[in-house]
Amino acid sequence: MARYLFFRLLDMVPTVFLVLTMVFIAMRILPGDPALVALGPNADGGQLEAFREKMGLNEPLGLQYVTFLGNAVRFDFGHSLMSDVPIGTLIANNLPHTIYLTIASVVLGLVMGIPFGVYAATQRNKLPDSALRIYSLIGYAIPDFYLAAVLLIVFSLNLGWFPINGEGSGFWDGLHHIFLPALTLAMLKSAFLGRLTRTSLLEVLGRDYVRTARAKGARESRVIYRHALRNAMLPLSTGIGISILATLSGSVAIELVFNRPGIGRLLINAIQERDYPVIQAGVMMFAFFVILVNLAMDIVYLIADPRIRMKS
Amino acid sequence: MSEALLDIKDLTIEFGSGSQPLRVVDNISFAVSLGETVGIVGESGSGKSMTALSVLRLVPEAARVSGQIIFEGRDLLKLPKREMPAIRGKEIGMIFQEPMSSLNPLMTIGDQIDEAIRLHEDIPAPERRKRVLALLRLVGMPDPENRLSAYPDQFSGGMRQRVMAAIAMACNPKLLIADEPTTALDVTIQAQVLAMMLDIRARFNSSILLITHDLGVVAEICERVVVMYAGRILEDADARSLFSNARHPYTQGLLRSVPTLNDTRKRLYQIPGSVPPAGTIKAGCPFRPRCSVRMERCAVEMPPLRTYDPGHRVACWATAEAAA
Q: How far is CA B320 from CA A163, B250, B254, B297, in A?
């Protein structure tokens, strides 16, 4: 197991390297002079030259690349062009909010989606199954920002049950503030996860070992939760991984609509302001997030499935 | 003959609805006495597995089952659904054909056997553990202490079938249903599993309903044999008289198809044709298209099961005519 983890971590090195390289290239092949974009059309030649010197843009490309890699490995992303705040600080201030939103929406999405999927699978082709089908269809079709706006108008503006924006202070106030943004993402996740639960559970319910469980005298609830659902969770965990990653793209819109701090909003603002180092850091954070979630899912598999555990 | 433990009467299993349902088991009746081992023999599609599953009411939901399945005086088909779990595993144990896929891959062997006990008997964990170990020894599992925490994937097919048998026998059921327990196994392992079943029978004195297509297996352990074909019983006799004096042309054909070591014929005998798909024979005897002694009457009317010698029932017009 330790051996497997070691090699799995080793496996991440080339991926991280590739991500860094692509970010570097992307930033260099973007049209326009970064100095000109950063300082605006009114900057004179001296200011531009000073800026290039400061950012290391006059160095040979190879040297820039090596410096970039070295800084990235030390988590030194430089300073924001707009506010001159170290990017490490920006990320430290924003990342926890995005992680918090991710956890809240994934937990809520699982709590909503899995029981719905189980219920639909056990009531196949009956009303709950059709209800899930319609719910999923709406969930697949509706854009996150639109759903966010609808929920905001209904529950915050009209009913006044939830705050309109911000992240709140303290645990309970924070929970109150995060509920609607998390619910927005959770509804989309549960549409996906509910459907996936139904499909995997139906597949597993036809397996021979489920019949064995019934033949032993297990009652239907035990057959479903102890035997079938545990096996159905294996394919489902891949879906949960995908769903966690979808929070990233989701967080961009959600953090804007609900005016919450977070990596998504940081990135959007940076793009609007052409704050290159921040964009660069934001993209890298997203990439690392994807790599980490994939790693986490592999570890979940390892723990959950004795067949994989045995092989590694 | 002693009292019947299991008495199946007019059992019919159909799939689909409307005017043309698919009838996979057609009005069959037979009984299993206390301590008796009965074999149901038939080719694929003869309805023998459906018959076995219907006893525990484990047939697919889409199936419609009618008739009576009387177990210890109670009609299992009339029992409320929620009362079936108390019978399954406790009164009637079952072993399935596919040892490779019949065990839960995420649970240890020990837990899966333990569950079979815990579901029916309220006894403390240490005693259950002792029972699990005893069961594993009974089914011939070497080194059982170290196997408890193993997962099914660490076992071969034969070993898994032993675990299945341990699960089926966990609560000392009165009836053991074994649906092709040796089919998926190598020949040498087949012999071991059969020996294990004989051992189980000797110790528990359980009745056994054995489903198989293998006449060799039947000869090995069965006292009585029910021959099924296309959902119907064609012959039902005690094993000795079936092997020495088979009366139905189908059974005779089956016996001729068994290879023997001192066989000098170049080619093994085979019954011409193949089993008709369920529901294609609308009237008359389902074996008629392949039968060498068929008569006009066979196409019109299904022959009823007629008793010849005591305990020897045959459904064949030609047999009836020859006997008359």
A: 89, 15, 20, 12
Which one, of B300, B322, B319, lies nearest residue B234 by Cα? B319
The tokens for B265 are 């014929």
pLDDT digits (tens, 9 = 90+) for B240-277: 989 988 899 999 988 888 777 776 666 778 888 877 77
Quote the pLDDT of residue A303: 83
Name the DSSP letter for residue A305.
-
- DSSP labels for B217-283? HHHHH-SEEEEEETTEEEEEEEHHHHHH---SHHHHHHHHTS--TT---SS----SS-PPPTT---S
Task: Please give the Cα distance from A208 to A289 (Å, whole number).
Answer: 39
Identity of the amino acid at B262: N
Q: Among A207, A216, A304, select the one facing B101 at the smallest CB separation.
A: A207
pLDDT at site B1: 44
What are the φ and ψ backbone dihedral angles of A271, each rounded to 5 degrees?
Answer: -65, -40
List CB contacts (< 8 A) between B170 and chain A.
216
For residue B4, list its beta bridge partners.
B33
At residue B2, does pLDDT exceed 60? no
Asked if residues B294 and B318 have their Cβ atoms less than 8 Å apart, the reply is yes
Candidate from B58, B86, B104 with C-beta closest to A214:
B58
SS3 A127: helix
| Coil, strand or helix at A131 | helix
**Taking CB atoms and an 8 Å cutoff, what residues of chain B touch A304?**
106
ipTM for the predicted complex: 0.87
Mutate to test the interface with A, among B107, B109, B132 (most CBs of A within 10 A): B107
Q: B94 to chain A: which residues are within 8 Å by CB?
A: 215
**What single letter denotes the amino acid at residue B149?**
S
**What residues of A are in contact with residue B119 (Cβ under 8 Å)?**
216-218, 222
The domains of chain B, with CATH numbers, are: 4-100+173-323 (3.40.50.300)
Strands B313-314 and B306-307: antiparallel
Structure tokens at B109: 């062997």
Class of domain A96-311: mainly alpha
Q: Supply the pLDDT for residue A51.
A: 78
Q: Which two tokens stand for residue A269?
A: 């603002």
Q: Which residues of B touch A216 (CB under 8 A)?
A: 88-89, 115-116, 119, 167, 170
- Find residues 151-170 of chain B whose CB sits inside 8 Å of chain A: 151, 153-154, 164, 167-168, 170
How far CA B230 is from CA of A17, A113, A285, A291, B226, in Å, comes to: 65, 45, 65, 57, 13
State which residue of chain A sits closest to B160, comparing Cα positions: A209
Asked if A209 lies within 8 A of B105 by C-beta distance, the reply is: yes
Tokens of A139: 């969930």
| Residues making up chain A, counted from first to last | 312
CA distance A207 to chain B (A): 8
Under the banding of pLDDT at 50, 70 and 90, the label for residue A53 is: confident
pLDDT digits (tens, 9 = 90+) for A266-289: 888 888 877 778 888 888 888 888
Q: How far apart are CA B110 and CA A56, in angstroms?
A: 65
Q: Which residues of A touch B (CB under 8 A)?
A: 207-209, 211-219, 222, 227, 230-231, 304-307, 310
Q: Do β-strands B207-212 and B175-179 pair in parallel, antiparallel, or remain unpaired? A: parallel
Torsion of CA B77, B82, B88, B94, to 10 degrees: 70
pLDDT recorded at residue A70: 87
